[in-house]
Amino acid sequence: MTTSVKNNFLPPSLISNLQQVLISRNDTVEHQSSQNSSSLSSRSRNAEPSQANAEPDCSKPVLLITNGEGIDSPGLTFLVQALLSDGRFSLHVCAPQSDKSVAGHSMTVGEMVAVSSVEMGDAAAFEVSGTPVDCVSLALSGALFSWSKPVLVISGMNRGSSCGRNMFYSGAVAAAREALICGVPSLCLSFNWKKDVSCESDLKDAANVCLPLISATVRDIERGNFPECCLLNIEIPSCPLANKGFKLTRQSLWRSPLSWKAVSTNRHPAAGQYLSNQQSLGIKLAQLSRDASAAGAARRLSSHRKNVEIESVGVAGKLNGQQTVKKYFRLEFMEKEREDGDDNLDFRTVEDGYVSVTPLSLHSTDQSKIETLVSNWITVALGRKQ
């Protein structure tokens, strides 16, 4: 079967590349089916998800680890290493395949989500082609792991601030929130990364700083003393080992400034890059099929319309009624000095060198009561010998 590129809205190079991917994929599937087994590399991503159904170590509390930045992020690696070295927990990891740090509480509905195993020490680890919320929802559903539910869900260690209104964009906070919605206590751990100042070793130190809090949380969950009506949004200051201790804070109204920038129209991604950036082959094909159908419908409705691509914010002159304007923009988060505020606000506490502990509830009307509960818990749980 051949594919005609005449009057097609998709670039010819993309169609050709897609055909090669399909042929290559078919050849690969046929080759794999002829083999009885295959060996995993040290960073394998090919095992069947059903292998996760092995029974967890019931002698240790089960923790589910996820994040917003993806399975390969240094923060996640350091956190898992710290918890494995601690030796008190049975770890299960389910994290995004790629960076989804600003995915918010988005979910993948009606489309295939691919799951592949990943070697991560003694932890049962999987990468998911969806969002952080997908990872938590899937892990807690019983479809991937055989547990009833973990004792605690931890989202982290995430690089960058989740203070203030940033938490509404944060895929990491959303993952912890999804756990809370599912009835599982959760923590979100973030490190206050400073551009041109912070380094990866700081993420390792930040993970170790959080171990007493994690241990106290698990212990008091099992004793029924943990405030399970909220998640705890934890942010570690930029000098982790020099922190002044844990401090209860309130969510501020601060957020990172947003900057939309026009992008030149001669910077179209190549077809190969387009394919590699998608979440999975199944999703790529579904999206291409849907886009092709939409393009065909649009072509039939406006067969005489002419596209005019521009990169400026405005258009000189008046456009012809048969012309369609297409622009390209890119959104970036900007760094900005934070203004002075209440010492009990999250960002101010972190800037002052404390580890910020901000309770976030699904019901804002209970915030005052929740803050009192968490304040009392921090005083007792972290004030005694671990």
How many helical stretches?
10
Query: Taking all residues together, what is the mean pLDDT?
Result: 76
Number of DSSP E strands:
13
Helix fraction?
25-40%
Judged by helices, strands and strand pairing, the structural class is alpha/beta
Spatial sequence of strands, sheet with the most strands: 3-4-2-1-5-6-7-13-8
Shape descriptor: globular
| Beta content | 15-25%
Largest sheet: 9 strands, mixed
Low-confidence stretches: 1-10, 31-43, 270-276, 309-316
- End-to-end distance, in Å? 68 Å
Radius of gyration: 24 Å
H and E order: HEHEEEHEHHEHEEEHHEEEHEH
Structural features, described:
By secondary structure, this protein is of the alpha/beta class. Helices cover 34% and strands 19% of the residues. The chain contains 10 helices and 13 strands. The protein has helices at residues 12-33, 74-86, 132-141, 166-169, 171-181, 200-223, 271-276, 281-301, 346-351, 367-381; strands at 62-66, 90-96, 115-120, 123-128, 152-159, 186-191, 230-236, 246-248, 258-262, 306-309, 323-326, 329-333, 355-361. A 9-stranded mixed beta sheet has the order 3-4-2-1-5-6-7-13-8, sandwiched between helices. Strands 9-12 form a two-stranded antiparallel sheet. A hairpin with a 2-residue loop joins strand 3 (115-120) and strand 4. Helix 2 packs across helix 6 (200-223).
